[in-house]
Design a protein that fits this description.
CATH topology of the largest domain: BirA Bifunctional Protein, domain 2
CATH architecture of the largest domain: 2-Layer Sandwich
Strand order of the largest sheet: 6-9-10-22-21-20-17-11
Distance between the termini: 45 Å
Number of helices: 16
Shape: globular
CATH class of the largest domain: Alpha Beta
Mean pLDDT: 94
Radius of gyration: 30 Å
Low-confidence stretches: none
Number of strands: 22
Helix content: 25-40%
Largest sheet: 8 strands, mixed
Length: 588
């Protein structure tokens, strides 16, 4: 080894030892008679010291010629620091250097390799190998590593077996767009990269591997945002001979285990459960943040029929009560109105009711509602003097969506969305299907292998839109961390499901015949769940972006700007693959 110790392990008990360290020069401080170097590696920082009169002049000269990010090897004596830095583990000691050897020089980095860097995100992604040297990024990847280790420990104790599934599979028409890969050996045919190992894990259940898991790469060609990447990682799990409660209890156990081991947060009580219908009615979202209140209250019966056209023409009148905000100024209320009128929310306006501390009520609709009527609104919300009621009206789904965003905005303004508070929730009983007006057909809300609730199967024939899925999501602090379902394991039910989704028998057989054929050989009842591993890491790390927890992420255009990918391939490669590109890409 080129070193005896790392830059993060020496302390005051090491004083008097002669050591050899290697690493990168983070900074140099030349005070004339004294030279200090901060030497960094993956494990930490150790201060090196050279002093005129006591150190070798050649060593001092070499030190003064070093630059940021030079890779060096140094030998010296561990001594107690005069000016200690108790913020770092090595802050009580320094190395009195006797030798320095330059292992490799470095160009001046395009940004500072510091916790608080001066590099913008695009620049840091271009030089990601430099960004990865920064302590915050390293800690993110260490967190990811530890979560993977602890996940495997827990699942192994629960008798799960980790089995790899193929990466080159068959394209399917449901869900997000597939990434496709041309086959040279099968001209004109294509593989797809898996959006999840869904059918393979079901086949493993048929094969008798009743507890499977995999920390697996998945791929979806969809528009990106902070919590999406074209390639992402799932903790993918499946169990046989189970019902919904068995799965929820098992993976609630995994979640509690990870919180306890990594965050030192313990949950004594079972996670609450809420139906999809209640989540939408009370929070306007299938992933509600329940760290704070402000549940929705519907006001159709109190707001309609008073000659106020905005309410009378609305599909839904609904509001929230914001505690302690009756003193909001007109300017602040105008800001909230503009917030809900943003194009992505689409509300036409905002109604407010102030429940003043003196008990009086003032609103933006005093012309249409008297004080007695408005007090009945306050009673509906259980409002207290000093509270502010905010009301929206319009199309049911759009209004709930806008009010959900307004609720989250107010929760943020009031400091109620505390990052160190965790509020897990199981959302259950999703609709099995959703109707699309444009294509005039049903789509699976999760995927076509999700089982209906047994008591709703009879509705498939006449009222498929009313059927509930045997499906569930785990939501923590308003983020969907994972989801799954009990699967269909009966060929005839699966065939019926494909028919409802618009597949002909021939199409279903061509796409999924292998699965339906497998169901004829003794398929057990089974179900599973997949956690978004990147999102789980971001939650534990206190970040909104999963990119921070991926070593080499893509940008919002799906590009890796470091290696310049995706890229054009040569005409020779295209010819081998029997492909012809008709689109002329823009020149860079």
């Amino acid at each position: 080894m080129l070193r005896t110790h790392t830059c993060g392990e020496l302390n005051i008990q090491s004083a008097g030892q002669e050591v050899i360290l290697t690493g990168w020069v983070q900074r140099i401080r030349d005070k004339g008679g004294l030279v200090w170097i901060d030497l960094r590696d993956r494990y930490g920082i150790t201060q090196l010291m050279m002093e005129e009169g006591t150190s070798d002049p050649a060593v001092i000269e070499t030190a003064k010629e070093l630059g940021r990010e030079f890779v060096i090897q140094t030998k010296g004596l561990v001594i107690e620091r005069v000016s200690k830095n108790l913020k770092i583990p090595t802050g009580e000691i320094e190395i009195k250097v006797s030798e320095i050897k330059v292992l490799n020089k470095s160009k001046l980095p395009p940004f500072t390799i510091e916790d608080n860097t001066d590099g913008g995100e695009e620049l840091r992604m271009k030089y990601r190998y430099l960004d990865l040297r920064r302590t915050p990024v390293r800690r993110n990847l260490e967190l990811r590593h530890r979560m993977a280790i602890e996940t495997r420990i827990y699942l192994d104790k629960q008798k799960f077996i980790e089995i790899e599934t193929p990466v080159l599979i068959k394209s399917t028409p449901e869900g997000a767009r597939d990434f496709v890969v041309p086959s040279r050996m099968n001209p004109g045919e294509f593989y797809a990269l898996p959006q999840s190992p869904q059918t393979f894990k079901q086949l493993l259940m048929v094969a008798g591997y009743d507890r499977y898991y995999q920390i697996v790469k998945c791929f979806r060609d969809e528009d990106l945002r902070a919590d999406r990447q074209p390639e992402f990682t799932q903790i993918d799990c499946e169990m046989a001979f189970v019902e919904q409660n068995d799965i929820l209890n098992t993976f609630e156990g995994l979640t509690k285990y990870l919180f306890s081991r990594i965050k030192e947060v313990d949950f004594a009580d079972p996670f609450p459960r809420m139906s999809y219908a209640d989540a939408m009615k009370q929070y306007g979202s299938d992933k509600p943040d329940i760290r704070f209140g402000m549940k929705f209250e519907e006001l159709d019966d109190l707001g309609k029929g008073r000659d106020f056209k905005v309410f009378d023409d609305a599909g839904l009148v609904v509001g929230i009560c914001v505690p302690g905000c009756a003193d909001y100024t007109r300017k602040q209320l105008d800001e909230l109105t503009e917030f809900v009128k943003k194009p992505q929310l689409g509300a036409k306006g905002l109604v407010y009711i102030r429940f003043n501390l003196d008990g009086t009520i003032k609103s933006s609709v005093d012309k249409f509602f008297n004080e007695t009527e408005l007090k009945s609104w306050a009673e509906r919300f259980n409002a207290q003097p000093g509270d502010l009621i905010l009301v929206l009206a319009g199309d049911i789904n759009l209004t709930r969506k806008a009010l959900n965003e307004l609720r989250l905005e107010m929760g943020g303004r009031l400091g109620l969305r505390k990052p160190d508070t965790y509020a897990p929730l199981w959302v259950v009983d999703f609709p099995l299907l959703e109707w699309d007006q444009d294509t005039a057909r049903f789509y699976a809300m999760h995927h076509p292998f999700t089982s209906p609730k047994p008591e709703d199967i009879h509705l498939l024939a006449g009222s498929p839109g009313e059927v509930r899925a045997n499906a569930y999501d785990l939501v923590i602090n308003g983020v969907e961390i994972g989801g799954g379902s009990i699967r269909i394991h009966d060929k005839e039910l699966q065939k019926n499901m494909f028919s409802i989704l618009g597949f002909t028998d021939e199409q279903a057989q061509a796409q999924f015949g292998f699965l339906m054929n497998a169901f004829e050989f003794g398929a057990p009842p089974h179900g599973g769940l997949a956690f978004g591993f990147d999102r789980f890491c971001a939650l534990f790390g206190g970040s909104d972006s999963i990119r921070d927890y991926i070593a080499f992420p893509k940008n919002n255009s799906g590009r890796d700007v470091m290696i310049d990918s995706p890229a054009i391939i040569s005409d020779e490669q295209l010819k081998e693959l029997n492909l012809k590109v008709t689109f002329e890409p823009a020149k860079k």
